[in-house]
Structure formats: C-alpha cells, structure tokens
# Entry
Amino acid sequence: MPEAATAKEHVAVVGIGQTKHVAARRDVSLAGLVREAARRALDDAELGWADIDAVVIGKAPDFFEGVMMPELYLADALGAVGKPLLRVHTAGSVGGSTALVAANLVASRVQRTVLTLAFEKQSESNAMWGLSLPIPFQQPLLAGAGGFFAPHVRAYMRRSGAPDAVGSLVAYKDRRNALKNPYAHLHEHDITLEKVRSSPMLWDPIRYSETCPSSDGACAMVLTDRAGAARAPRPPAWVHGGAMRSEPTMFAGKDYVSPRAGRDCAADVYRQAGIADPRRQIDAVEMYVPFSWYEPMWLENLGFAAEGEGWKLTESGVTELDGDLPVNMSGGVLSTNPIGASGMIRFAEAALQVRGQAGEHQVDGARRALGHAYGGGSQFFSMWLVGSAPPTT
Amino acid sequence: MTGEFTGAPRNVAVVACAQSDHRRRTDELSEVEMLMPVLHEVLERTGLTTADIGFTCSGSSDYLAGRAFSFTMALDGVGAWPPISESHVETDGAWALYEAWVKLLTGDADTALVYAYGKSSPGSVRDVLTRQLDPYYVAPLWPDSVALAALQAQALIDAGHTDEPALAAVAARSRDAADGNAHAQLPGARPQGEYVVRPLRTGDCPPIGDGAVAVVLAAGDRARALCPRPAWIRGMDHRVEAHSLGVRDLTESPSTRLAAERAGAFARPVDTAELHAPFTSQEVVLRKALRLDDSVLVNPSGGALAANPVMAAGLVRVAEAAGRIHRGASDRALAHATSGPCLQQNLVAVLEGEARA
# Structure
C-alpha cells in the first residue's frame, strides 16, 4: 500500500509555443531555435523568464546534432542559469516523457512553474548516420526506421485483414490537416488521395507519402499549479493522467503490432483520468504516427477499437478532423517530425485542443484529449490525458 | 521550494546500493555485462525483483558509448517484462536519482531502481568531453576537460585560495582514504607525478575508467521494511550555471551553494560529505561553497580521485554517503554530483539516518 501522501498538486498547461517546423532552419543556432519556442510559450502564458522555477528539456540522440549533452550549452538560452535544469532522453517518446517529468515536478510540489521544451535540429547532422554507427555483435539498422517498421505493418495487415488502401487514407487526412496548422512542416496544397497512392514505394507497404519528413523545430510548454492556473490569461489545459511504460527491444514474446507496454500505459492513464470507455469519453487524439499504418494500429493499442477493428474507424472517416474521433488534428508526425520534439508536439496539440486554442484545426467542444508518443523499437511509451476542466480528485 | 514542504511530504530513503569494482578498462565486458551484476546485487539486498519496482530511472551518455540510444540495451538487461514505468536522463545518474525521488514524492510509486554506468576506456574521454562544449564557438577548438580544469585551478591559485602543495594534500588524503574502499580504482599512496596541464599534475586528475552503480529508493514504511537503517533524503536540489567559462567566476560555485541551501544542507551540520570533485582543485571550490570545515569527513571513499566512472561517479557519491548511514558510520551526510565543464551544474542531496537508541 502506498504510504499516506498528500494528494498530488493539480498540473495545468498555461503556455504553449512552437517554431514553424521546416526541413532546415539555417537562420538560427540551436540556442536560437529553442529560445524561439520557449519565448512563444512564455508569451502565451504572459510570464517572464523570472517566473520559471525549473527547466526540463528533452531531445532524441545527441548524435543528431553532434553535441554531447547540449542542455549544458543551452542553459543560457533557456533562461535556466541559477535554476534546476534536467535533461530527459527516452528515444522517440522523449518529447512526451520530458513533459511528464516536468509535470511531476509540479505534482510533487517540488516546483511551482516549470518550462519544458523539446527540440531537434536534424539539419545540423544526418539522422541516418546518427542511428547507423556500427556496434560490434549487434544487428545493424541499415534500412532506417521504415525498414524496421514495415514488417510489423505487414503483420498487422495480415492479422486484421485490413485492405491495402487504409494507409493512404491516413496520410491523405494528416497532410490535409497540416494545411490548417501554420506550424506544420509539410504544406502540400495540391495533395490528392491519388497522389499519395501513386507515390513511390519505399518499404513495402509504406509509400513515400505515407512517411514522416525530417524537420527542424522545437516545442515548449509552461506547466504550473492551481495558483498559477488561476492567474493564467487564457484557459489552461489540466493534466488528468500521465504515464510511461517501457519493454525490452527484442524478445520472443514481444508483440510488435500491439506492444503490451503501450496497452499498459494507456490503461494507467485512463485509470488516473477516470476513463472507462475511451472511444466515447475522449474527444480528440494526437498520436505518434510516423508511418501511416500506425494510426489503425495505435487505435487498437490505445483501446479505441477492438483488436483487428482499428482500420475500420479510419476507413469510415471517424478519425477525420470533422469525424467522431478526430486523430492527429495538427497533421501529426506524418507532416512534422523534429524527432526529439515530436512527442511533445503531440502532448501540446492535445492541450491546445482542450484550451480551445487550436485555430483552424480546432475540434469543436473538445473537452478531453489524449497525447501519445512512442519510441525505440515500439518499446518506449509516454501518454497524457488533458481536460478543459480541472481533475475532480 | 525544494526540500521545504508546506504539506506533509512523503519521506523517501536510499535503502540499498551496489557498485562495480571500477577499473581502467573492461574490454571483455559490454555496458550491459558490466551493469548486470550491480543490478542483481542491489535487488538481492532488498529482496525485490524488477517487477516489484514502482519506477526505474537511469543515467548514461550516448557519446561515451559511441552510439545512439545506448541505454536501450541496458534496459533489456534490467528485464523490463512485464513492461515497467521507466525513464532515462542523458547525464550523471545522480540526476536520475532526482527524477526518481520526485516520482516517489508524487505518490505514484513506492519504490524506485536507479542506475548509471559509463565506460570511458574505449575512447579518449578527454576528447569526448570536448563535444559537450558550445558547438559553434568553443568545441571546434577542442579544449579538453583537463585543460579546462587547469584554467580553474590556476584561477584558484591566482586568487590565493590554494596552492600546489595544498592540492597535493587533497590528492594524498583522497587516495589514502580509498585504501578502505574495495571498489576504488586508485587506492593508496601514489606520487603527484608530472604536470598534465599546468598547474595540474597526474595526481590532481581523476583516473580514467569504467564502472556502474545502482541504488534502490523507497518511501516511508516500505523503506523501513527494506532496510534496517534507511538513509532518508531530507532534501535534494540541483542548479546550473552559464555555460561560457568567460562569464563565470571559476573560483566560486554559486550553483552548489544554492542547491545546498535548497536541499537544507545548512540547516544542521553534516558529519560526512561525498563530493564529486574529479580534480583536486574542484574540492577547494566545493568545500567553500558548501561551508565544510575540518569537522566534516570529506570523501571517505576516496572520491572521484580514486574512481571516476563518467556518468556514474555522481550517483556513486550518493551510494557512498547512504552506505555510511546504513552502516551507522554517519548520521547526516551530504552527497554532491557535478556535470559540465568546471562544475557548471551541481546537485546536492542531504541524507539522514534516524536517531539510534
């Protein structure tokens, strides 16, 4: 039994900022990039650097920019001098994990107002090189992430009987959603379903247009306690639940189509948030979909559809921006992928939605939204559920 | 606010520790193979299994390992099945301990496994650490970690805070103390040697080596059940300073002072301090920042001068301080960890044992 503890402090998102994501931000340094997102989050919260008690920063491997522990160099740009600065690294889920570590600082009452930020400036280096350093006695990952995930998509298609066309529907939807998001990297104004379907096959069954881009960008949020939320100029998003789960990379019992770590993580978040029926009780979902087929796969893994049924939600238009369960309103990872920031962008988009601040990609009346991130070989998961009203417990 | 709560915070303690024998090289072992015995040992001490642990957090560095996502293989070694609640910091394991402590304070978990490891032997750690400097203006010049520490040492000498014989005395005292530490890489008396980078001699510098450490944290009654004399964390805080050496006074460590204040270190005297000072000159800076006088036993383990497994050495300080409390050799101890060039980032934890009858 947990030892008696005072109830956790409620955590509110009162500021969100991100950069316009592009293939290469040659006009700014790493420091300039993170500063831009942080400044926008502070402006949204109408707070200054002095109002921040601690900074929690995350990004994917340091090899992507060629800087070891870049948070040390970035301390000045993040206004962290004299403050606690914590660096999180949990592979592709890192943007989500970073936000959760920041939220725990507030929930534990160790800090009151925390700036959290995640970034990636992939143009500084070569991500494929960063991931492909040869390691003795280990299988090389020569085919990139798509090569690793394509067989698992195939396994899903076989298992569920999903028709071949579902992946292209996801990509077509997400790229159209991205047109409504001024910060999204890919703005393909001439996108058509036919163009997605006729794009080159990269890793069968994943086509070029069903693949995430490589982006430069940063995302920041200001998290605070109830007193801070009461002073916020715009509606806060309240954290109702958050969790991380990890499982081993490789072992005989691993289900790559629907990893147990993902299912357990979602179940923990729903338990915390009092969600019994996610399909009915959650209004919008931002999930980490780097390859189109992961939308139906994660719909099942996250409990929005029964096993083998996720693709039917996608096919019937339920996940469209005006559907009954909008998924990836921002355009998702398929339209914007600064890897280390991608998880935090999902979390931030969920918060934007319940704050009613999502602009043209706003889901009407979104009261509860899920932000989801995953990383590694589908082994690291982080999620949070945010609401427009504060938690009741 | 760190360490000072208006409500009724949970009490969290270090209940078990284990570390490897730190060695100059471990060519025959992968990181995972180096870590595994340490993980097994710390779990055996508490009777817990991986599945019993509420939260797991680790510290390590991809650059030291020479590959991206290097921590994923260590996670396989932990045996994360069924799936575990887990996170990782890309720095010294002392910061993983901080993340785990915060997690336990939220009440979401009652126990935590924290571990860290580093192998410096496969490459040149002096060169590797240059890559953590400002990538545009400083890193291209490749100033290495010893050269930067030498700048700091010379600044201290110029300011009259120390001199070379005093630094030699720090080295001698530390390595003498390490004689009683079975894990130490460099125990016992050794010559100060030649200058590496003036004014620092071989004896003023840490050994280069490989090692791993793990600790188990537990809250409240769980801690009492798992350990006869838990090392209660009375406070913990960390602070960072500007990166650029040109804008810092290298003879001071305001971040250490502030972290110690927030951790409650000055509320009552400590009897022991385990300082993460890889260079003799850095102990001079830290003693001043932490107001440690001769009544405090400093680095009875030998400190980082006796074993400095990069990314683990800070968490080793916590383990050493907690171990003394577990054994009844200390009642109130301070543990310190550092990261970045010339003590840029510093963490302080205050540990206490309950009064003995």
About this structure: The CA atoms of residues 65 and 129 of chain A lie 11 Å apart.
